[in-house]
Amino acid sequence: MDLNGTAAIVSGAASGLGEATARVLAAAGATVVVADLNEEGGKRVADEIGGQFIVTDVTSEESVQAAVDAAAAARPLRVAVSCAGIGWAERTVNREGSPHSLASYTRVISVNLIGTFNLMRIAAAAMQKTGPADADGQRGVIVNTSSVAGIEGQTGQLAYSASKGGIIGMTVPAARDLSAVGVRVLTICPGIIDTPIYGFNENAEEFKAKLTAPVVFPKRMGTAAEFGHLVRSLVENDYMNAEVIRFDGGIRFQPK
Ligand SMILES: NC(=O)c1ccc[n+]([C@@H]2O[C@H](COP(=O)([O-])OP(=O)(O)OC[C@H]3O[C@@H](n4cnc5c(N)ncnc54)[C@H](O)[C@@H]3O)[C@@H](O)[C@H]2O)c1
Question: pTM, whole model, 2 decimals?
């Protein structure tokens, strides 16, 4: 897919992986809608890349519809990337013997899994309305962000792992459904990537160092720019479809 002269929408683009993705897609010639709850960060990113910020809650039908409508208004919508997400650490039964909160579980599933589905379905419907972009009849590409936690699970992060596993589970059925529309679907599973999701206090640095220990090579956190580069590669490579791609420096999460 040639990005020049196209429209793209990136959820979670006010920060971290989504921000880096929005920058890469804009540099490749796409006009990007920055869809995020965070107005300050979203406006900053949109201004810097010549895109448009639309305040968006990925859990809301109306909100995502409005953001997709804005993206599809001027140019054909060819790319939708879901990076909006929240982390959550809570055990099934905690050390005091209390069960995991159902409200927090529901919230994490709602933002990470349902929010991803919400953007995918609405963006695909908009892509269907465009003309084919090439001789294959391709109309668009959807890239979702899961996590290595969605493949192998992460200790103490049951709700998060479940939400990310759900995104992996949607990949093949969505790609098959959307083949009729000429839309490819891909899922990236990042390992440990340096973004604001880990916070900025001194504990955050300690936490990040601990997380990075099992990385195989290169022995460091990944960067958001490397994630953006992967998204662009997947979008531009027309034969990539229905695949779940680890992006993790070879890390395998340990039980403790
Ligand atoms: N950083 C990592 O190591 C890592 C690893 C694996 C997976 N991921 C996943 O990558 C995605 C991006 O993470 P990040 O590290 O860039 O985090 P981040 O916190 O820097 O960015 C997430 C963005 O999502 C937005 N957001 C949250 N809830 C939203 C909602 N309901 N509607 C719209 N926007 C919302 C936030 O405002 C924020 O701008 C997340 O889904 C995360 O789970 C990150």
Answer: 0.98
